[in-house]
Amino acid sequence: MKDKVAFTMKLKPNRIDEYKRRHDEIWPELVGLLHENGISDYSIFLDEPSLTLFAVQKVSPTTISSNDKLHENEIMQRWWVHMADLMETNEDQSPVTHALRLVFHMD
């Protein structure tokens, strides 16, 4: 069984096209790493006026426990550095994220 996780991130001004281009060329090894860590059906939407990115991903029940391993992975850390000039980041170059709480779902 998979659950959904949603969160927001924030783009820097004038970086929309480059953000999309880099994701259009996402590294196969990063996709593999996400799948290996139970993340699938991953979509990112953009609210252009606010430059807010809204991400939704399906995660396996073990994903939360493996999330620290994912953050420590060299591939993930290289991706963060690759994307850091486009978005708000933490000191370790990971994107600043804000978890969202599910308040409604309809099948």
Overview of this protein structure:
GO terms for molecular function: racemase and epimerase activity, acting on carbohydrates and derivatives. One of its GO terms (biological process) is rhamnose catabolic process. Keywords: Carbohydrate metabolism, Cytoplasm, Isomerase, Rhamnose metabolism. The protein has 107 residues and is an alpha+beta fold. The protein has a single domain (3-100), classed as Alpha-Beta Plaits, CATH 3.30.70.100. The protein contains 4 helices and 4 strands. It has helices at 16-24, 28-36, 63-72, 74-83, and strands spanning 3-10, 39-47, 52-59, 98-100. A 4-stranded antiparallel beta sheet has the order 2-3-1-4. The longest helix has 10 residues, at 63-72. The chain is globular and about 35 Å long. It starts with a strand and ends in a 7-residue tail after the last strand.
Q: Radius of gyration from the CA trace?
A: 14 Å
Largest sheet: 4 strands, antiparallel
How many DSSP E strands?
A: 4
Strand content: 25-35%
The number of helical segments is 4
Q: Please, what is the average pLDDT?
A: 92
What distance lies between the first and last C-alpha atoms, to the nearest angstrom? 15 Å
Number of separate domains: 1
- Uncertain runs are none
Tell me the CATH topology: Alpha-Beta Plaits
Structural class: alpha+beta
The CATH C-level name is Alpha Beta
Net shape: globular
Q: How would you spell out the order of helices and strands? A: EHHEEHHE
Q: How are strands sequenced across the largest beta sheet? A: 2-3-1-4
The CATH architecture is 2-Layer Sandwich
Helix percent reads: 25-40%
